[in-house]
Design brief:
With 78 residues, the chain is an all-alpha fold. Helices cover 79% and strands 0% of the residues. The chain is elongated.
Amino acid sequence: MDIAHTIFNFSASAVTHWGYFAVFFGAAFEAATPLGVFIPGGLIVILAAFFAKTGVLTVGNVFLFAFGGAVFGDELRP
């Protein structure tokens, strides 16, 4: 149980620092590239929703960054 707690604390601190960045660019790259199938933007958003449920991120910011990234990525597509 102690190992799981240590891993979650490490991942929570990393997600707190880089979470919104990953959500924005994961959604943007999935929407921008024709190879969006290989970039797991949807999975990144689902993981961010999990961390929002646990209180590490906020739901509103996850939604805004995912939406903004998808719109930004769609505008980059030729």
